[in-house]
């Protein structure tokens, strides 16, 4: 009898372990119950992740700092096109607080129709955020950290299963977009945010009605960065094709605050600052399908009591205790125009190029370039006129010098007819 119970227990443990692996991609929705607190890892001990998860110490880790001056333009990167994202309200989705983030399970019918050479099917989406003291995106652009970040995780079905895809190069893909404070509520995020209080405690799960998942992403999916990296949470598998959109998504300050103050994580503490620090590129290339900014702007990156440090040239993490511009929506130099950010009013026409992390500097540089071009055009016009005048003077002088010195004009002579007397003589 005891042997039978032991066998059943082992089978149950094996099944639970398989379930964890099967859905363990980038913030599993089924956390293990071991170790300190309620989770098997935490953001408080990020430096210790490689001890239990060796891939976390690899050479292709995520997130990274995107140095726009170092990106490589690639015309082969096609605009991202999504299919099947407008879900009917009758479809029920699982929403869970796994102690590290809030996870929304997605049906496999959601696919990426264009933008990758291989097929990818959706698995889940989750969010990363900071705290009232500072922003919490995982990726940074030219040293700037944004208020939050959304990740939509996909797997390649040709791998056979999610478990296999997680371990194969290119087996996973993540679409990432920055969240930023805007002037009004983002209606597309309300179906998700209004359910947070129902999953406040770690491990709680609820079902929510289907809605337009594509509305959670930027309206412009044609401009993005692409690089090879990893899951940003343990087990940190280095099998992810990352797409980081250039356009940000606007949420109101109240919506960002709801993210930062509603959920609880380990030991019933507020679930805040659930982001990993940026990792070294180790020679990796970051591609872009548009011309990125030529004038990067670096701003302090806040952290929990860590003093400012000199930025590493390879994009390693830099943090500061100061509040970063943009965390309260007051960062005028880089706040995008509302018309080209996802969120806010949907009746405003988008304007190409606005509402993206490096675009403010690009517009300034473009204006300066146009002014310089106008000045140069004026100078070239004056130079051409002077050259033409000098050429005409030269031709005139040459003609004058070619005249003979003895060719003086002869006086006019008037001949009169001879008289009769003069003829007789």
From TrEMBL:
Gene: CA9
Record-level GO BP terms: morphogenesis of an epithelium; secretion
A Pfam family assignment: Carb_anhydrase
Reported cofactor(s): Zn(2+)
Reaction(s) this enzyme catalyzes, per UniProt: hydrogencarbonate + H(+) = CO2 + H2O
Source organism per UniProt: Chrysemys picta bellii
Signal peptide positions (record): 1-19
Protein's name according to its UniProt entry: Carbonic anhydrase
A single Gene Ontology CC term: plasma membrane
Entry's family note: Belongs to the alpha-carbonic anhydrase family.
SMART domains in the cross-refs: Carb_anhydrase
Role description: Reversible hydration of carbon dioxide.
Keywords: Glycoprotein, Lyase, Metal-binding, Signal, Zinc
């Amino acid at each position: 009898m005891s042997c039978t119970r032991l066998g059943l227990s082992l089978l149950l443990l094996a099944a639970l372990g398989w379930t964890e692996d099967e859905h363990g991609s980038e913030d599993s929705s089924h956390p293990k119950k071991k170790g300190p607190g309620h989770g098997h890892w935490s953001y408080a001990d990020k430096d210790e992740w490689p001890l239990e998860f060796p891939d976390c110490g690899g050479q292709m880790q995520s997130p990274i700092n995107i140095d726009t001056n170092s990106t490589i333009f690639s015309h082969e990167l096609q605009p991202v096109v999504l299919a099947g994202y407008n879900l009917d309200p009758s479809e029920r989705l699982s929403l869970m607080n796994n102690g590290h983030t809030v996870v929304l399970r997605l049906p496999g019918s959601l696919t990426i129709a264009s933008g990758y050479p291989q097929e990818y099917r959706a698995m889940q989406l989750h969010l990363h955020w900071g705290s009232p003291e500072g922003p919490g995106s995982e990726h940074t652009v030219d040293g700037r950290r944004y208020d939050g970040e959304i990740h939509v995780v996909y797997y390649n079905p040709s791998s056979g299963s999610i478990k296999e895809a997680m371990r194969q190069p290119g087996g996973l893909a993540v679409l990432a977009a920055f969240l930023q404070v805007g002037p009004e509520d983002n209606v597309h995020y309300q179906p998700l945010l209004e359910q947070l209080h129902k999953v406040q405690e770690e491990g709680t799960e609820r079902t929510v009605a289907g809605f337009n998942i594509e509305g959670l992403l930027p309206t412009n999916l044609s401009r993005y960065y692409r690089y090879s990296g990893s899951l940003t949470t343990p087990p940190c598998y280095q099998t992810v094709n990352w797409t980081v959109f250039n356009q940000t998504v606007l949420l109101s300050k109240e919506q960002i605050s709801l993210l930062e103050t509603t959920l609880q994580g380990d030991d019933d503490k507020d679930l805040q600052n659930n982001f990993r620090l940026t990792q070294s590129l180790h020679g990796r290339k970051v591609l872009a399908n548009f011309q990125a900014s030529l004038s990067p702007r670096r701003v302090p990156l806040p952290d929990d009591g860590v003093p400012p440090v000199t930025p590493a040239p390879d994009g390693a993490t830099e943090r500061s205790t100061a509040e970063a511009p943009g965390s309260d929506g007051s960062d005028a130099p880089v706040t995008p125009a509302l018309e080209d950010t996802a969120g806010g009013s949907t009746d405003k026409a988008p304007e190409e190029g606005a509402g993206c992390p490096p675009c403010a500097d690009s517009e300034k540089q473009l204006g300066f370039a146009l002014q310089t071009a106008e000045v140069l055009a004026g100078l070239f016009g004056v130079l051409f006129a002077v050259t033409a005048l000098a050429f005409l003077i030269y031709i005139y002088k040459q003609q004058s010098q070619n005249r003979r010195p003895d060719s003086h004009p002869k006086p006019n002579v008037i001949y009169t007819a001879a008289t009769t007397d003069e003829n007789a003589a």
